[in-house]
Amino acid sequence: MISPRSLLLGLALLCAWVPAAGAAPKKATLGVFLPTTLTDGQQRFQFAEALAAKLSAATGRPTAAKSFARYEDFSKAVGEGIVDFAVLDSWAAVQLGSKATPVALAPLSGETAQRWAIVSTSRGSVKDLAGKRLAIVKGAGAADPKFVTNVVLAGDLDAKKHFKLTPVPNVESALKMLEAKGAEAALVPLAHVPEGVRVLYRSSKVPGAVLVGMRGDEDDLTENLKKLEPVAPFGAFVSIQGKELEDLRKLLQSGPPRRQPVLVEVPALRVDTRAFLEPAVLQPVLPSFADALDVSAEQPDD
User: What's the pTM value of the predicted model, to 2 decimals?
Assistant: First the structure.
């Protein structure tokens, strides 16, 4: 007969080896870093909280939100494994390298890409800003000049040599610095250019906000992306089909491909001089018109 003590010991071992049927799902943390796509700190916070609730419903994992104001704080949290999912500006996403896997783009006003603009309160051109202060949103430090040079200016101008780059935490700070004469120009998304400010330069389109997963958590996002409801001001997430982010990463690191020089070597022109000395060399050979000029003896005089 089995004693009560042995029965209890067996049940304890069984519970230790067999997981409970209703085990609670692993908790997750959503990080939001959108210093250039959204222009208001409160709006970023509210977006993070609302999206975390939508993620909890879509993935079945309780998800907490954490909004970051500075890139260094966000990057540190990613490195320490605190963040499982994130929505961030694409220029910041590619700076994370292999730490983040892009899953989907977040459309804003129906567009998944945006143009950047160099703006100023004064007349002139970008060349006139040589040695002047350009306010830019701070990213990974060393990558910031590369973003301006390779991505925004398409390699036509070395931003580090041409401007005095002045890092700021977000786009609203860049515009306030411009207004307060703390900088002669600012780099901001074209959609955020206020009235009364002159646009000196417009870039080509660059991917906007992107949804990424960390450490294999991107599988949860990919599988449940269709269940994830949109959160204002963004539309429904759009799965990444092409290589937009990979192309942006390569462009940031290496710059655009070298362009063909305008002046190229012209092949030497060779003229066959025999044509001047031997008319027969020219083809076709025209018939002689001498016979056509002969006047017939039977032709009456005028």
Answer: 0.77
The superfamily CATH assigns to domain 25-112+208-254 is: Periplasmic binding protein-like II (3.40.190.10)
Q: Could you tell me the two tokens for 177?
A: 């610095």
CATH number, domain 116-204: 3.40.190.10
Count CB-CB contacts under 10 A for residue 116. Answer: 25
The rounded distance, in Å, linking the Cα atoms of 77 and 100 is 12
Query: Residue 138 carries which DSSP code?
Result: -
108-166 pLDDT, tens per residue? 999 999 999 999 999 999 999 999 999 999 998 889 999 999 999 999 999 999 999 99
> Which uninterrupted H or E stretch holds 79?
helix 71-79
Residue 288: how many other CB atoms lie within 10 Å:
8
State pLDDT tens for residues 72-99: 999 999 999 999 999 999 999 999 988 9
Closest of 55, 58, 80 to residue 68, by C-alpha? 80
Phi, psi (deg, nearest 5) at residue 39 = -105, 15
- Count of CA atoms in the C-beta half-sphere (13 A) of 1: 2
Contacts of 53 (CB under 8 A, 6+ apart): 63
